[in-house]
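Protein 1 of 2
SEQ + STRUCT:
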Amino acid sequence: MVIDDQAVVRQGFVALINTVADMEVIAEGINGQQAIDLLYSGAALTDEEKLAEELDHKTAGYIDALRRNDLTAVKASLPVNSSSEEAIKRWNDFVQQNGAVEEAEVLGTSSLNQQGVQTFVRLRFRKAAGVYKVTWRQGMLWQQAEDRLQPEITSFLRRSFVDLPLTVRFLPQTAIDLTTYDLVKNRFVSISFPDRYRLVIHAKTGDVIARRIVG
């Protein structure tokens, strides 16, 4: 791990270390707190981060397949009982009313309290714009019961009530420490419960302590 607040210095050390046969740089950071976060939490969150990146890519692929009217590519993301023809038809109906897509940006993926995750994407059509979402379960698009409350563009792609994905759930690191990964800001967030009366939030500028007042 290479830690330095100057990018040029970090890059120099990384290049030097990577020339050594039995050494490899596995992470970089800008300060001591980030180094601790990476060492403390990186291993536990690797799988979640990898899943988020994979589903971000799959969501971008689904949007691209709809834009290209690619039946085969659309079908690859849909459950077996869903029609790719119907999905493309509904997409084209929406585009006819709102104009072609001028911008599509995947914002990130976050876990649900139930099984599955949601990926959020910002779409700007010629006459409309907004943040939309898809729900994934076991690598396929899925419809949660509450999804039906939100306006739908096409199969499994709905308007979102929030503009950004949530962070992944907090994962226990020790008996009193938990850590999560902020997928939007690309950072670790750590909290501790040193006793039943205090919650400590580990921030860049120092620890923030919340105390329970017992009357």
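Protein 2 of 2
SEQ + STRUCT:
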Amino acid sequence: MMAAVFIEMEYSRLLEFYFKHKSKLKLKFKMRSLLSALFLLLLFCCKPSTAQNIDNKQNDEKYIFFLHNRFLETNEIDAIHPEYGRVEYKEILQKFKDNGFIALSEKRPTNVNAFDYAQIISRQIDSLLKDNVPAKSITVVGTSKGGYIAQYVSTIANNPDLNFVFIGSFRESDMEQIPDINWCGNVLNIYEMTDPAGISALSRKKASSCEIAHYKDIELNTGLQHGFLFKALDAWMVPAMNWADGDYN
């Protein structure tokens, strides 16, 4: 457990340094690659030293990769959206941690390509799998654009045992406009009745060729429109954490 916490802290510090100084870095893409490499190094350098510790990791530790919405890509962490208010990013991560999950996340740079960023997350997941973390203990949670990135992670990882929670990130038009998404894993789709950016994604599930052993739609009615995913609401966070815990009912 301490090794995993160390990994999370060190990776977060690297990311914080990068985004603070990225304007001074001419080779920012090489820097991003370096950060990914350092993340992998930390994963392999911090392996538990005993078989008992490995068993504890496999049985107890649950990882959540959290991918935030588009608004935070182009605004500061505490910026106020004119309609939906502040993104409760810190509160969301803290709630995951308070419930025993290892939350891995970063504030993404501006206007990242969803597929390219999904490849970065997929490589990090591969590193955890190589470090004997069971796929069922890894969940990718994404809101809005983060949900689309998470769908690409599902496509790239192609692992039926991984867990995914897509929040406010499916429209029926996606079937024609984003045909290259092919889900794989256990999928929970959460959407808000008053939000035009989310509906049942059963058509995507049916169109996906990979095994999806567990699939569920949850429709909320908070009245907050797309702003529901700006908040650390139990309405979506509790189902997401239950899914990450393997409760697919």
